[in-house]
Each structure stands twice: as structure tokens, then as C-alpha cells.
Amino acid sequence: MLDRFSADSFPHVTVLRGEAIEYLAVQPEGLYVDCTAGGGGHSEAIAERLTTGRLLALDRDPAAVSLAAARLEKFGSKVMVRQAAFSGLAAAVKEAMKEFGGFVNGILADLGMSQMQLDDPARGFSFAAEGQLDMRMDPAQSLTAAEVVNHTDERELARVIYEYAEERRSRRIANVIVRNRPFHTARQLAGVIERAVSAPRHSWKHHRIHPATLTFQALRIFVNDELGELESLLAQAPQLTRPGARVVTIGFHSGEDRVVKNTFRRWQAEGLFRVLTKHVIRPSDEETAANPRARSARLRCAERI
User: Fold this and answer.
1) Residue 132 lies in a domain
2) Domain that residue 289 falls in
3) What is the DSSP string of the chain?
4) Which of 80-94, 121-135, 178-192 has the weakest average pLDDT?
5) pLDDT given at position 129
6) Is residue 253 a part of any domain in this protein?
7) pTM to 2 decimals?
8) Which pLDDT belongs to residue 157?
9) 104-141 pLDDT, tens per residue?
């Protein structure tokens, strides 16, 4: 999996890099956490602004951890790279504090998929290749997308597809999945879904979204418990941050954005944080033209009181 990419050839374009760093308001002597190191783009931008400060770069995906570590090696002891899910944030920060000391000045979480994950057929995140139905961010976990589509009952499968992707055709899709299983590859599943919803190829190509896109999104979120992990990250943030610290998130679908928005509002009502982004920050026209995948990105920021 790792030999397909290197730190220099990593095919991921960092989304909202400038805006994320602006809202994070990096202090040269501060302690920062990038919870989704990925290809290291945001982490690199943070580390470049540090003098005596430190950066803890985390990722759930061990392949991403290896790539980020290679890209950030030039910063030496200024950066610590570790594998950790959002739910392990406090433990990772506690470890870092033994070396760095103090509380956190900023937390960043880019919730999008990396290009490395999408392009590797062995990961099964994309239906563009004949990859296995895997979809695990951390290959060490047991649950895979194949187990979900091949063993979940129809009603529960429809619930997952609707709840995690707001797919209006969830019942029809769940029914056709159950009638055609077992599934072994991502492309096989995508083909069955495409035929089931009777969407002419010219129609979905015009709208730039394949009929299976939302189902794949729902399966990925469910397999990795992404919303639960996000809620866990946000639950830990208040106890880890000092006054003036910023929490910045970049979301890509309505479910995760709703979790962040509601949490920020609650924090503000409780007097813990003040919301700095009254409206979400979106990529510029120039960025979306250069990187169409960025068009759904939504940045939010809150500051610790």
C-alpha cells in the first residue's frame, strides 16, 4: 500500500490551507494538534510558523502516518507524528505534554478523504477500480464494508444509507443489495446500485455524481464510526485547550458539519467558546477550479474563552 506513494509524490491537494492557518492563528511558541495529518499539508503549514512551539500530528490511517512523518521529518523535534483516532486525542496529547508541556493552543481536523485513500484500490473507498470492499481507515479494525453489505439485514442497511448520506432511494438500494449479494468488489456494488436506480449514464455524468456515491459515503461513515469519532474529538477539546485556543474543522458533508455547528453553538451558550465563523468558510472559486474535490468543503472555527 505504501510503495505506491511517497512524501514527494503524494497526490493529495490540501483544502483551505490558507484559511485554516489564518483561523488557527498559529503562535510561534504554541502547542498545536493536527488530528488528520494525511499527506502533511496542513501540518507543514503549521510547523513552518513555529519557533519554540510544537506540533502533534495525528492520523488514524497508518499509511498516512508514514507519509506525514516523511514529509515533516525536516522539522525535527518540533513535530511529533503518531497514529491515533479522534477518540484517542486526549491520550495522544497527554503523551506529547510529557515532552512539550502545557495546554493546546489550537486543534485542527480536516474531515475529508485523502487522495491516497481514494486512489488505492486495495482500500475499497472508490468504485473507480476493482478494489475489495474494505473502507477501513485503520486496517487493524475488524469491521469492513463487505461485512456490512453482505450480512446486514435490509431494514438496517436502508437506515444506514439514509441516515449517513441522506440518500432518498435508500430502501430501493438496500433491497437490491440484499437481492444481489454477496459482493466482493467496490465496482461490483456500484454497478448494481447504478442499475437499480435507473439513472441514465448521461444524467449522472452531467451532474458529476455517480448513483452509488451517497451509498459509498454512508458505508464509509458507518464502518469507521466517523460521526461518533468526531463527537468524541469535540467532547475532549474543552479540557485540552487554554484560553484563546482555536478549534478549526473542515467538513465535507452535512452530517459532520451539523455535529460541528451544533457543538460550537452549545459551547458558546455555555460560555466555553465563542464562534468565530458566523457562516461557514468555503473555498474560493480559484481553489475549486484547481481542485474540484474542494467544492463541498466547509470550515468552522471556535475560540476558547
Assistant:
1) no
2) 2-115+226-304
3) -GGG--TTT---PPTTHHHHHHHHT--TT-EEEES--TTSHHHHHHHTT-SS-EEEEEES-HHHHHHHHHHHGGGGGGEEEEE--GGGHHHHHHHHHHHH-S-EEEEEEE-SPPHHHHH-GGG---SSS--BS---SSTTSS--HHHHHHHS-HHHHHHHHHHHH--TTHHHHHHHHHHH----BHHHHHHHHHHHTT--HHHHHHTT--TTHHHHHHHHHHHTTHHHHHHHHHHHHHHHEEEEEEEEEEE-SHHHHHHHHHHHHHHHHTTSEEES-SS-B---HHHHHH-GGGGG-EEEEEEE-
4) 121-135
5) 66
6) yes
7) 0.90
8) 98
9) 999 999 998 766 666 676 676 777 667 789 999 999 99
Same domain, 7 and 83: yes
Most confident of the ranges 106-120, 151-165, 207-221 = 151-165
